[in-house]
Amino acid sequence: MPELPEVETIRRSLEHRLCGVGIREAEVLLARQIKWPDVPGFVARVNGRCILRLQRRGKYLLLVLDDGSYIVIHLRMTGRLLYAAKEAVQDSYVRIVFHLENGDALYYADTRTLGAVYAMKPDELWRIRGLAEMGPEPLTAEFSADYLQGVLAGKKMKIKSFLLNQKWIGGLGNIYADEALFLAGILPMREAGSLSGMESQKLYEAVNRVIADGISEGGTTFRDYIDGDGKKGLHQENLFVYHRTGKACRNCGDSIVRTVVGGRGTHYCPHCQK
DNA sequence: CTAAGTACCTGTCCGC
DNA sequence: TGCGGACAGGTACTTA
What span, in angstroms and rounded, lies between the C-alpha atoms of A128 and A166? Predict the structure, then answer.
């Protein structure tokens, strides 16, 4: 569900509530959401620890604990994190409850149960391959126009699939990939290695822009996504192509088209994107 | 190595 | 109202 802007919004909404707060007891209601170590090991590692700060890497959220270890969370499609005072949250899909020393609780809820939660020591983080092998993120110095042009070179895969692969760029998902390709004027089914220098430059700028706009608007809410306070995002009001099949292109007025690229629903304007 | 297809889950929506 | 199929902010694994 959440992409980089949504996870960053969640991080910001939870940070001021969780920093310096102790975890009294982790209650695991659905064992398969815990990926490392096993459930008793997870509970033993987490109980009694204090949360120092919240970090984000791509779509991963990391809770830094006072012994230097981490709770690592990936929300996948429908994971949600909710902070609630006293009473339980109104969510039928709570899978893990972190009961806090202050009497409040942090809830991990997940409808489709595809999300992943880990308790990791620093020298174990390499085990999370999606985290360890993630490429640079938008809006960082490592993600430059030159970097993008370099990794695009020779790629036979479709540009949409390229953008979704976290090993090249960390944090883009289906919404922001479609939006970035629209802003850059590039068709999603184009071969990645076929982009000109000019197109590569435009895509670089578009990726940074959609991620920055997404963060500033608190993410995009279509169905499940909410931040740690239960608030929806606003960016869905400003999308150009995603979820706008058959509607008028905001640029030229033509109908937005939906197709499937790399197994994912893909939206584009056949007039504005070449 | 790259690229594409499938599996993992549960819920919603749409057409018949 | 019921049923089947497509679809859903993602990634890991398997196959060519």
Answer: 13
